[in-house]
Sequence to fold (310 residues):
Amino acid sequence: MKVSITVTLKKDVLDPQGKVVKQTLENMGYSKIQSVRQGKYFEIEVEESGEENIRKTVDEICKKLLTNTVIEDYKINYN
Amino acid sequence: MKSSVVVFPGSNCDRDVAVALKKFNIKNQMVWHEESSLPKSDLVVLPGGFSYGDYLRSGCIASKSKIINDVIKHGKNGGLILGICNGFQILIETGLLPGVLLRNKRLRFISKSVFLKVENTNNIFCKNYKKKNIIELPIAHNEGNYFANNYLIQKLEDLNLVAFKYCNQEGKIEKNFNPNGSLNNIAGILNENKNILGMMPHPERFIDPYLSGEDGSNLFKSLLNLYKNEN
Fold:
């Protein structure tokens, strides 16, 4: 099963890179951009029986390695 | 006193800190990250550098390496751990120290010498700074912006666990003298037992008056005092 994961900084955490991207877009003339948040994207292939087990594994690796839960949120997408 | 410096792929201050330890007569051994156990040591040093190229988050991959389990055990049993720069980032990722180190506020890698106030001189690492607690040390990092929730920051301040703060030459702690955006100008913190110190500045680079300055020396001398007292 292919799983994709998006990691972004939590809402309250300052995202300086996103801020700079937004600023640059404004400089380029895109005046309607409200906000930009930059994140990371992972594609993971899991071979495990039962969707329940896959969900458990993926959630675990998100918490243990892919994100620092103090400052980051993650979204999992099962394709 | 015996020490171990853990070497990860991408560490680059490992030999500098080994030179410093040797200068102060601490018997040091380099330990490769793939080892599963530490040699007998009083002090474990996690050196600066860019372990694993800062992949994922700085210090993150190193914090899951084979040797780390033993480092955590060493720390939990009261053994001394010093994390410098990337070593501090690794300590945070292992959970031995709280909070998080974000990217520098102005998104620049900062390499310069800064003034620091030693906020807590009542611990094993900083005892020798009692007489002179405003010091100059170099920093060289991209992710040194210390961040934590209000509750944790308050706790660090209340329990006197902030070891170093960025300041000016007179010891004034203000936003203007904060190079990276760290909350409360925090440059280094201790764990509750005060046997683990993580700091962004590099004491090992300032141990020779002919080459740089000597303000890093007192950290290593403080450790030696402990050894003398114990034996």
